[in-house]
Records
---
Amino acid sequence: MQIIRTIAELREHLANFKRPAFVPTMGNLHDGHLALVRQAKPLGDVVVVSIFVNRLQFLPHEDFDTYPRTWEADCQALEAAGCDVVFAPGEKELYPEPQGFTIQPPSESANILEGHFRPGFFGGVCTVVMKLFACVGPRVALFGQKDYQQLMVIRRMVRQFALPIEVIGGQTLRASDGLALSSRNNYLSPSQRKEAVQLSKALRAMAEAVRAGATDLPSLEHHAMDALAQRGWQPDYLTVRCRSNLQSPVADQVTALAKNEGLVVLGAAKLGSTRLIDNLEI
Ligand code: PAF
């Protein structure tokens, strides 16, 4: 496995390959990331994983400085998972000057849900992903489905800019109790870790209610958020949306959409100071 820190060296190395498969990450890797690397292996002739904690997607009060950096463990795990190239640029390499040119995703997909609670987040994600795409030149790029809205926004960006990249979503991996794997799970205390599964349980209960015929989504969402709040969470949203555009479905289409695999339930909530997100397709 090669470790490459500069764009020039990366380009020189990748000139020998026709079909790079790319997994962008911010490091602190868990089995979900490693599953993406394994999924990438047969899809390209070289698997590139980037590790870069992207300042542009963090709000000033968020955890950029404390975001866990676990370089040694990440490299060991990547090598074992079959990664060929780790691209780990420093900040000065990727942003040698203030990044004045940025991608501004359209507000109907980027200012709702995560984008509403983390203004500017998707602009920061799209800008770095576009830049990483320019460095790696992938033919295939893989993103975890746990970040459902991120995956949708990136698919749209790739489509609208006609980038010759196939975007593939990787299934969410879960701990044995059902908690979605996430780098931010490391922030949880032992008691919070036990409680954390309640988010996925709440989403599962909402999905089951919709499958069983519930159509009053505002009331379903309100009750689910209330129940989590009673347990000490600070929920941002628990909501049923159309898979295609993440908008709220109209009430008389809920049943048909649920039958045709057209819905997804998404949630974000804080437990102490740790913000967790999760989703389930209905
Ligand atoms: O999902 C992530 O880890 C990040 O948002 C990404 C896609 C690597 C961009 O920094």
---
Amino acid sequence: MVSRVIPVESFDLVIFGATGDLAKRKIFPGLFRRFLAGQMPKKSQVVGAARSSLSQKTFNDLVENSIKSFTEINFRDNDLKNFLLCLNYIQIDANGSKGWNELKTALRPKIIRAFYFSVSPSLFGSLAERLHKHEITTENSRIVLEKPFGRNLKTSKQLNAILAEHFTEEQIYRIDHYLGKETVQNLMAIRFGNMLFEPLWNAQYVDHIQITVSETVGVGGRGEYYDHSGAMRDMVQNHLMQLLCLIAMEPPARFEPDSVRDEKLKVIRALDPVAPHHIVRGQYGSGVDHPDYRTGVNNKNSKTESFVALKVNISNYRWAGVPFYLRTGKRLKARKSEIAVIFKEKPHSIFGPEAGNHQNALIIRLQPDEGITMDVTIKEPGPGGMRLIDVPLDMTFSETLGIEENAVPDAYERLIMDVIRGNQTLFMRGDEVEAAWAWTDPIINGWVDRNDVPKPYDSGSSGPQDSLTLLEREGRKWREIP
Ligand code: BG6
């Protein structure tokens, strides 16, 4: 498989929070990979901006180390040297006046300017205001933001309002890195690039849909942030919501930013409120090499969930009556993200009741081992009558397409290049984020009002027993987390 690299125009990219974790783990290694691929023009400039007073040499060393630690491909020293020539470091005070004039002078006229706010959301407002006050933004400028976009509807509205004072919606790129994943985009290709699936993609043929994002990691060093958020805010309100939208939305007229985002928004607005008995929350216990959740976040009374499973209904013409079961959690049995579309039983079996129940299923594996599997029913070979078995038609993308390991751009690489190209298709619009909070708020407020305490679950398990019951009482079953 030959990938097609279309170089973007040269740009000036300013990374606020350039010494932070995200910049080290994702942004610099991602830019370097695009540089190696020939997509990032050599004349581009990457300005690292942060609070610390660093010499250019110290900053370059920091970037070099991050690239060596987090770029999982081989490269020549000379390429790294050339990439480092694009770097510039400016010490900047996000809440004061230091550094802003230097930044203004460093940026070149008539070139795309992108400002990546890789900082705490509490600084978004000050950064936006200062960029404006110092006349650093031009018509050709955009800003890139990381979640969380507020903690609830009220704060997300406030944040959007602050940004709107200085930037148009077309200049604001809200990252949900799940949208940058190759296989997540493939959801749209599978649905809208094939004639086969779309006619069956509705309540007449689909029994239910399962969306699982399971992780083996715990909260790690992010205890304080996580305990303040929980799985609902950290994963469901954004990543799982985006997956749900892509699976459930109507075909957009075109693969263009607002056509796609309009359709996603309609799905979010059609979500029913979730009844308390359709939600299960959990908190992980200790494992051989890690403490339990509460010890990990240093809060022995924490009522924050590290697991959540819920049944969601979409009240629209296509999906009325089809449950969508969502689950995500940390310290589970395996790292696995997949979407399973389980089709209904046939209206009549010509093979009689002894042939058993057989439901077709389409499984879209998002990570790891990206691919699709279709469970189809066939005759079990050999004598003994018409015995039916379900077998998988399995396609693993890397094998079928001959993709070498690490050849596919990481989500951040793709998204940063889209920012430079000015393509917002894979970014969240302000109204989408607000609609997602409007649906999430009553769920979280309900937990607070009821003083809800998450159920404990064993590390390395599939989550609390109650999450299995959520489906079993409706005659259904979660797919195994292998
Ligand atoms: C982040 C969450 O947005 O996504 C983390 O804050 C989570 O808690 C991560 O671990 C999962 O992303 P990925 O790409 O590893 O599936």
